[in-house]
Amino acid sequence: MPARGRLRSFNRNSLRTGVDDWRSIPRDLILIETQEGVSSRFGVAGSPPVAGQKLGVALATVGKLPINGLRICLDGTCGWFIWCGKDASTAPNFYQPLHVEHIAGYLPSVIPYLSLPPGYRFHIAEGYEDVWFDSTLLGDK
After folding, report:
1. According to the 3-state scheme, what is the secondary structure of 21-67?
2. 37 pLDDT band (50/70/90 cuts)?
3. Which long-range contacts (CB under 8 A, 24 or more apart) does 5-8 make?
4. pLDDT for 40-64, tens place per residue?
5. For the chain, what are the domain ranges?
6. Cα distances (Å, whole numbers) of residue 135 to 22, 84, 86
7. Calpha distance 82→102 (Å, rounded)
8. What is the model's pTM?
9. Residues 60, 89: contact at Cβ < 8 Å?
10. What is the pLDDT of residues 62-121, one digit of tens each?
11. Other CB atoms within 10 A of residue 15 CB
12. Which of 14, 55, 61, 120 could form a disulfide with 84 if both were Cys (CB 3.0 to 4.6 A apart)?
């Protein structure tokens, strides 16, 4: 079982917006190297989204902490749903569709987690990272 609650250093600005460090690195390199690193650190085979796939992002919450994500199996998308702040809403328009290639412009700090397979969740905030498998996301009891 993957470890939970691993502390990592995050700069508040790098969590909320794109910063110079992220923008100076080619986007493809960021996606490949960081996603493989997170998957291997948690002992899972990576399952990165394919360019052109969409994820759901609660754009109205960008700028709040913590940043949360969960991945389900959902045809036609990569299965990721990402929101910022404490709780996700059940409102029908809470998430907006966004091509995976554009997430770096809103939340570059989530890029490393996108290769986690369906059933995984993450919760990141300044100085904190929590990644875990949640079988209920796959419909398992």
Report:
1. HHHCCCHHHHHHHHHHHHHHHCCCCCCCCCCCCEEEECHHHECECCE
2. confident
3. 5/128, 5/129, 5/130, 6/129, 6/130, 6/131, 7/127, 7/128, 7/129, 8/124, 8/127, 8/128, 8/129
4. 889 999 999 998 999 999 999 999 9
5. 12-138
6. 32, 22, 21
7. 13
8. 0.77
9. no
10. 999 999 999 999 999 999 999 999 999 999 999 999 999 999 999 999 999 999 999 999
11. 22
12. 61
Tell me the C-alpha to C-alpha distance, in Å, between residue 65 and each of 14, 71, 103.
12, 19, 16
- Kindly list the distances between the CA atom of residue 105 and the CA atoms of 16, 30, 59, in Å, as whole numbers in the listed order: 10, 13, 11
- Spatial separation of the C-alpha atoms in residues 75 and 40, rounded to whole Å: 25
Mean per-residue pLDDT of the chain: 82
List, in order, residues 6 or more apart from 78 with CB less than 8 Å away.
49, 50, 53, 54, 55, 71, 100, 114
Contact assessment for residue 49 and residue 69, using Cβ atoms and an 8 Å cutoff: no
What does the alpha-carbon distance between residue 20 and residue 81 come to, in Å, rounded to a whole number?
26
